[in-house]
Amino acid sequence: MSPLSYRKKRYRRNVAVVILSPDYPSKCEFFLGKSIGVRNRWQFPQGGIDGNETPQEALFRELKEEIGCSDVEILGEFPHWITYDFPKAKRTRKRYPFDGQTQKYFLVRLKDEVKINLNAFSVPEFDDYEFVEYNEVFKRASYFKRQVYRRVINYFIKEGYI
Hints:
alpha+beta, Nucleoside Triphosphate Pyrophosphohydrolase, 5-stranded mixed sheet, 3-stranded antiparallel sheet, globular
């Protein structure tokens, strides 16, 4: 075996946000953003936890950076960190030395009258977004995130948050 096979994997601490539209609960739709520069890659907002930030502080900062607002009501938090490896092709393209991510998921509802602005931050993450129904999330989301998304959303449903 090569020396690299003994290397301990490194995971980036990260938050991910399942966003329900302001129409919830009368209409249950989930925010998906289309990543800039990646063909047909739709995902939930997410991002790294900086320095001494708490996951909740990172949640609000990431929402400001990715959708231009953090006017949300936190409905729930997934009780565990979820760790996954990046697909091999993705690992080789990344500029940072991580094998994957360990994520804390939150469920939020956008407050009424919120305006999403994908260009609010100097380096936008998304070039488009849509609110979609449950089944559509799994048709559009990046293939390697679908299993995690289903696990998280189903937990929120089972626990009565959705």
